[in-house]
Write a structure and sequence with these properties.
about 200 residues; alpha/beta; about 50% helix
Length: about 200
């Protein structure tokens, strides 16, 4: 709730009035949904909420959820990110545009791999702790839910939390693949179509 409130305040500084369009991937989807609920509480219009493969949060701090980011998960994230930066470094040698992007990132993309991987691992642990202690609110705003079907072929858990104006699209991919270009080729048109339907 505190994190959603911080984002809510930043959004209101930039755009004091709606209608608002929000989107979030994974834990970012949980935050976007919490922001949508807060906006509605403030009598603001949320024109669209796009949720890209977040899991609904139950707020139960039981043993299984508290250990959701244990040593095995930390090792997996560390290995995945280390391999990503190694591949990025290798690819950059042949690609001047990629080298320029790495320079422009000011250290985020591969200039200090170890510190960046440590920060990513810490971020995963922090977000996992917040997820274990938080509960998804109920929202009744126009919502698009995109689900990674390889991990959850029958999306469940959101139920009444998203209201009647929610549309679910299941993609044949896993959680990380749902933000790859091939998945966005499907997600983008669905979002564009939904926004087009709502324009006067």
């Amino acid at each position: 709730d505190e994190l959603a409130l911080e984002y809510f305040a930043r959004i209101r500084e930039i755009a004091p009035r709606g209608p608002y369009r929000l989107a979030g991937y994974s834990f970012g989807g949980n935050v976007a949904q919490a922001i949508a609920a807060r906006l509605v509480d403030e009598d603001e219009e949320v024109e669209l909420l796009a949720l890209v493969d977040p899991a609904p949060l139950t707020g139960r701090r039981d043993a299984s959820r508290a250990a959701v980011f244990g040593p095995e998960e930390e090792a997996a994230v560390r290995a995945e990110q280390t391999a990503f930066f190694a591949e990025l470094r290798d690819d950059a040698g042949d690609d001047p545009d990629l080298r320029a992007a790495i320079r422009a990132s000011r250290g985020v993309l591969g200039l200090d791999d170890r510190a960046t991987v440590d920060a990513i691992v810490a971020s995963h642990a922090w977000a996992s702790g917040l997820m274990a202690a938080s509960a998804s609110p109920s929202t009744a705003v126009p919502t698009l839910l995109f689900v990674a079907g390889r991990e959850d072929p029958a999306p469940s858990g959101w139920g009444v939390r998203l209201g009647d104006d929610a549309e679910t699209t299941v993609l044949d991919t896993d959680h990380s693949g749902i933000v790859a270009p091939a998945a966005w080729e499907r997600i983008g048109p669905v979002i564009s179509h939904r926004l087009g339907m709502r324009r006067p």
